[in-house]
Design goal:
The complex is a heterodimer. By secondary structure, chain A is α+β, with helices and mostly antiparallel strands. Helix content of chain A is 21%, strand content 13%. In chain B, the strands form six sheets. Chain B has a four-stranded mixed sheet. Chain B has a four-stranded parallel sheet with strand order 14-15-16-17, covered by helices on one side. Chain B has a three-stranded parallel sheet with strand order 9-12-13. Classes of the chains: A alpha+beta, B alpha/beta.
Chain lengths: 53, 528
């Protein structure tokens, strides 16, 4: 059965997410003040493209 | 030009929790699942004022004191950016340690370099506020008010800039802004989003983006072709994003390049007077089922007041072209409560929708199914840094009556649907958009009352109508006047005057003139 966005865990099925070892690095929590499916439609994620590279 | 210290930084995302009742759980980041409060920096990206109450909820979930003044050495620095903050950061200023006002590329390298110095909190904040372009630390400024309640003064109390000059990226060539993460779970589906430009040359008088992103800038089409190619490695859906995508020089060639089969192109915005054959063919090919046209107002007169620059013939022509290219449904955006609006202007919305429907039916005839026309009625909120920044917002009761008037005209028309904003939510948006720093009291109360705005507004000592329903004097000190977006107050005043006289706007020279102020001091603007 096809899952609707609200049933799926936020982040499931993503392409391009980067997970880095946090040790010794400055950690930034980029917060979108809305739920996942609204926040990810926001262009703010474009900005992230060049922060972690 | 500039380099990111990317190797030394980990950036993870956090969102408002899916369950509204998850107050117990700590806010964690998506990538590592670690508490957000453990990060060195909490960075809010805020596009909409209506999300300000969520900022308070998120801080509480994270276990971070809501007010900036209550945070200490053990807490992450809380910063915020995004267009809502560019327009007016004051309503949310009590909760943010530092705003970054302007485009990130022109700010972040210097910000991160100084932030990583590891200096004690107050010393660090002062250094950032003094040295980083576009940085605004509310705690270093004090406001006073007149007996009537208007802003009397707004001054620095430490050695920090008197005006926050927002930096922007002068030349977009050589930089790319596109989706770094593609997810199936957004309004855009699996689309790879590519920003084609920033700002907009049309200067519609209700629109903040048309003024704070001046001068309008576009990416070279050849570079966009490369970026779209990269995206096509992952998905066939590509969304071209911009304030007016149809203004991109070379948009026709870009559409012709990809619109024939490789990619399904969609556009964040198209002007009804700029639907070239290549563009419409690409749109039809993409399988898009609904196209949006934004006449904004029903009458030619009111469209002149708002400087929309689109005629009824443009609107009808666009409807005909879109349906003829196989896009079955149309969405039409209108605003109610615009300055100088009369009952005749409201009536004109229904009349225009009926005329569009007439065209729509004539073209749809012979097609198997006839689509739906959705008229979307928004409530106009006068925004900072627009020529309408001084205007009063329409009363909630009047907005309701105007919505009813349009609905009663269109309610029983086949194939036409009407959706309308809830006027009292637009009122709340106006409070959060037009307020000064005393709005913090309202936000705190809304938060404590779990979103109950009517109760919160009753409970505070502040009269929110003063922010919303009062026409402000053009010589009044406005809460957002300390930000310098380039465009002068004199230019906005002139545009406001011309609007009230029903005269069209002064066109944007796109860098070639000195009329609005955005291009005058190109040499002097830092960070570009």
């Amino acid at each position: 059965m096809k899952q609707t966005p609200s049933e799926r865990k936020p982040g499931a099925g993503e392409i391009g997410a980067i997970r880095k070892d946090r040790r010794g690095r400055t950690t930034v929590a980029l917060v979108y003040p809305n739920r996942y499916h609204v926040g990810m439609a926001n262009r703010g994620d474009c900005l992230r493209a060049r922060v972690p590279a | 030009m500039w380099a990111w210290p990317t190797e030394e930084i980990v950036c993870e995302r956090a969102f408002l929790p899916e369950e509204t009742s998850s107050a117990a759980g700590r806010l964690t980041t998506l990538e590592s699942g670690r508490p957000a409060a453990e990060a060195d920096l909490i960075a809010f990206s805020i596009s909409f004022e209506s999300d300000y109450p969520h900022v308070l909820q998120l801080l509480e979930h994270a276990g971070i004191p809501l007010r900036s003044a209550s945070r200490g050495e053990d807490h992450p620095l809380v910063i915020a950016g995004g267009v809502a903050c560019f327009l007016n950061p004051e309503p949310v200023a009590a909760f943010i340690d530092l705003f970054l006002i302007g485009e990130a590329e022109a700010i972040l390298p210097q910000f991160l370099e100084r932030f990583r110095s590891g200096a004690p909190r107050q010393e660090l904040l002062l250094d950032l506020a003094r040295e980083v372009p576009g940085a605004y630390a509310p705690a270093f400024y004090a406001a006073s008010y007149t007996a009537e309640g208007a802003l009397a003064s707004f001054e620095p109390v430490r050695d920090v800039p008197r005006k926050i000059v927002r930096p922007l990226l002068r030349d977009l060539s050589g930089t790319t802004t596109c989706s770094s993460v593609i997810t199936p779970d957004t309004a855009f589906g699996r689309a790879f989003l590519v920003e084609v430009g920033r700002g907009c040359p049309h200067g519609c008088r209700f629109c903040g983006a048309g003024f704070v992103y001046r001068p309008p800038r576009f990416r070279p089409a050849a570079e966009l072709v490369q970026t779209v190619r990269q995206g096509l490695a992952h998905t066939d859906q590509v969304g071209l994003v911009g304030a007016a995508v149809s203004d991109l020089p070379g948009i026709g060639a870009l559409c012709a390049h990809f619109g024939g089969g490789e990619a399904r192109l969609s556009f964040s915005s198209l002007r009804a007077d700029a639907l070239s054959p290549e563009l419409v063919r690409a749109l039809g090919h993409s399988g898009v089922k609904t196209a949006t046209i934004a006449p904004e107002a029903g009458s030619e007169r009111l469209r002149r007041v708002i400087n929309k620059g689109i005629s009824e013939a443009d609107v009808l022509g666009a409807a005909e072209t879109l349906v003829a290219h196989g896009i079955p449904n149309l969405k039409l955006y209108f605003m109610l409560g615009l300055p100088t609006e009369t009952d005749a202007d409201v009536q004109a919305i229904a009349t225009l929708v009926k005329r569009i429907k007439h065209v729509f039916l004539a073209v749809s005839r012979g097609r198997r199914a006839i689509g739906i026309i959705t008229a979307s009625l928004g409530c106009f909120v006068p925004k900072p840094f627009t020529p309408f920044q001084w205007a009063a917002m329409e009363e909630v009761g009047r907005l309701k009556a105007k919505i009813r008037a349009v609905k009663s005209e269109l309610g029983r028309v086949a194939n036409v649907r009407v959706h309308a904003d809830v006027p009292r939510w637009a009122y709340a948006q106006a409070v959060l958009s037009r307020g000064d720093r005393r709005t913090a009291e309202i936000l705190s109360r809304v938060h404590a009352l779990q979103g109950n705005w009517p109760q919160a507004l009753k409970a505070v000592a502040l009269n929110a109508d003063f922010f919303v329903h009062r026409e402000r004097g053009t010589d009044e000190l406005l809460p957002w006047d300390f930000i310098d977006h380039g465009v002068t107050k004199a230019f906005l005043k002139q545009e406001y005057r011309r609007a009230l006289e029903g005269r069209p706007g002064t066109p944007c020279g796109g860098g070639s003139c000195r009329l609005c102020g955005a291009c005058t001091d190109a040499e002097g603007h830092p960070g570009s």
